[in-house]
């Protein structure tokens, strides 16, 4: 009976661990970051501004392209990280760059905003381990 309990507990732990990330492997040294704007930056209201994405120890590939150690960018605007074992939502807070883009023009209303990058695999699911940037705050004035 003890072996059965240990086996059952192991299955629960394994299942729980699987829910924390997707199945596509990423280099544990991969690093994604927002190169511009900087944390705390004030941006002009009423016109688009450039946001560029940086990535190290990993490649960029368009969505639906399955190639080892690659993914594509998702820009999270004014939101927290989504579940790491599901496809990243696509809405006004989760912007997809499935063509392999490494920058965009963004226009936001006046106020305080947060930006964060999250890499997704060919099917928009975060990698294992997840590759995401520090969340930055910008001010649109």
From TrEMBL:
Keywords: Signal. Residues 51-141 form the DUF4399 domain. It holds the Pfam family DUF4399. Residues 1-21 form the signal peptide. This is Uncharacterized protein DUF4399. The lineage of its organism: Bacteria, Pseudomonadati, Pseudomonadota, Betaproteobacteria, Burkholderiales.
